[in-house]
Amino acid sequence: MPHRNAPLTPTGRLRLAQCIVEDGWPLRRAAERFGVSHTTAARWATRYRQLGAAGMHDRSSRPHHSPRRTPPQIEAHVVALRRAHRIGPLRLAARTGIAPSTAHRILTRHGLPPLAVCDRATGEPIRRYERQRPGDLVHIDVKKLGRIPDGGGHKTLGRAAGRKNQRRAGIGYLYLHTALDDHSRLAYTETLTDETAATCAAFLVRATAWFAARGITIQRVLTDNAWAYTKTTWRTICDELGISPRWTRPYRPQTNGKVERFHRTLTEEWAYHQPYTSETERQTVLIDWLDWYNYHRPHTGIGGQTPASRVTNLSGQHI
């Protein structure tokens, strides 16, 4: 495709060449008429004589010969190492004696994607998916989080004093239960004291009501194969709510990756974002952070939109 400042398109080149070859225009007159140099006019006229109209299209800028290209044997070795050990250009370069940039070009040439978009277990590209409507699928997961003792933990007091304060308090853990809509990424999170089957079932009831208040009817929920989600309690509550339960394949947490990634964002931008002097202080900030995430924070996974903007007629998204 011609670049945006090119004076001639393939159609314009054809007209120029026909004026010279078929109509007998002088070379410089045709060049002046079409606003190009006489050398450009001569080039397209020559190509028209040799190839006809087919010669008016752009040619590849790739050289006919590449004498300094990496030998095929080394390329094959790089590809074999990548597939066998799933390592990146830097480590491939160290093992094969080539530059990392060369290793990167070899991987690109052979259609091998970056490791960041591949499954760690198989090395195959991760298949991305997204449901068409809010509520079609809701991801549910639990994140275990250490409590902050009154007076602060190691981020406030230092590592030694923080550990001593935490041992003295003996405060244990909290459990962040999250329901995240697959299409919009709208998230509902509660901080609970455990992850038993009864607690998970009760959380689903409240999450269903929360989404319903925002015009979203949950059709399916996806969880991992944790004990609480495989018991009769979970199946019964799903049946009562008219929700179809789904489970990830064993040892495949990537299937529930959206809520896993949300929990990573939650810990980075809220739980460990700043030193807190108590768990009460941290929990108070959670409400504001969830509002920020749902209504104001651009989400890179949905093209920079906010989760609320993908839910039709959701009130409060412009506050």
As a percent range, the share of strand residues is 5-15%
CATH class of the largest domain: Alpha Beta
Number of helices: 13
**Structural class based on helices, strands and sheet pairing:** alpha/beta
What's the alpha carbon Rg, rounded to whole Å?
Answer: 30 Å
CATH superfamily of the largest domain: Ribonuclease H-like superfamily/Ribonuclease H
Strand order across the largest sheet: 3-2-1-4-5
Taking pLDDT < 50 over at least 5 consecutive residues as the criterion, the unreliable ranges are: none
Largest sheet: 5 strands, mixed
The span between the termini is 45 Å
Helical content band: 40-55%
Average pLDDT level:
87
Could you state the order of secondary-structure elements as H and E?
HHHHHHEHHEEHEHHEHH
- Number of DSSP-assigned strands: 5
- Bulk shape: elongated
What CATH architecture of the largest domain do you see?
Answer: 2-Layer Sandwich
According to CATH, what is the topology of the largest domain?
Nucleotidyltransferase, domain 5
Overall number of structural domains: 3
3D architecture notes:
- The chain folds into 3 domains: 10-53; 72-117; 138-310, Nucleotidyltransferase, domain 5 (2-Layer Sandwich).
- 24% of the residues are buried.
- It has 13 helices and 5 strands.
- It has a 5-stranded mixed sheet, with helices on both faces.
- It has helices spanning 10-21, 27-34, 38-51, 72-85, 89-96, 100-109, 154-157, 159-169, 197-212, 227-230, 232-241, 257-271, 279-295, and strands spanning 138-146, 173-181, 187-192, 220-223, 244-247.
- Helix content is 45%, strand content 10%.
- The protein is of the alpha/beta class.
